[in-house]
Fold this protein.
Amino acid sequence: MGSNIEENAAHQRKYKGIRRRKWGKWVSEIRVPGSQERLWLGSYATPEAAAMAHDVAFYCLRRPRSLDGLNFPSMLPASVVHAELSPKSVQKAASDAGMGVDAQMVLNKDKTDENENENENSGATQVLDEKQFWEYDYEFEDCGTSEEGELNISVEDYLKTQVDH
C-alpha cells in the first residue's frame, strides 16, 4: 500500500507547475510576476496537458533565457514565442495548449483502443507526437469561463470545435 502512495507522489512530481486533485483531475496555475495575482491555467484530464499549460504560461510571463526549465521545451507553440501577451491572453494561450494536449491524448487513446481491438496481441500505446500535435491550428474562439475566471470547456467540446474547422 505504501508503494502506491510513493508511486503516485513520484508521478505528481514528474512535471513542474502541476498538481493532482483528489478526484483525479490535473490542475495548473502560476503567479504573475511582480504581483500577488495567480493565473488559473485550467483543469485537465492528463498531467501532460497541465504541464503544457504551465510551460506556455511560464514562457509568456517570464521569458526565460533557456528552455531547459520547461516540461516540454521542444513543444512550445510558435504562436507564443514572439508574442507579447496580457495575463488574460496568456491564460487563454496556456489553456488552448493544455486542451490541445488533452485532445491529442484522447485521440491517440481512441486509436490505440481501435488497434488493440483489431489485434489483441498489440500491447503498444501511442505517445504524444510533438510534430503531429503542433501541425493543427488550435484556435479556440468559443471558450467559456466561469464567474471566477476559470476556463470551463470539456475535451469533447474542444475536439468538436477542431473537427468543425
Observations:
- The chain has six helices and three strands.
- Residues 87-118 form the longest helix (32 residues).
- The two ends are 47 Å apart (CA to CA).
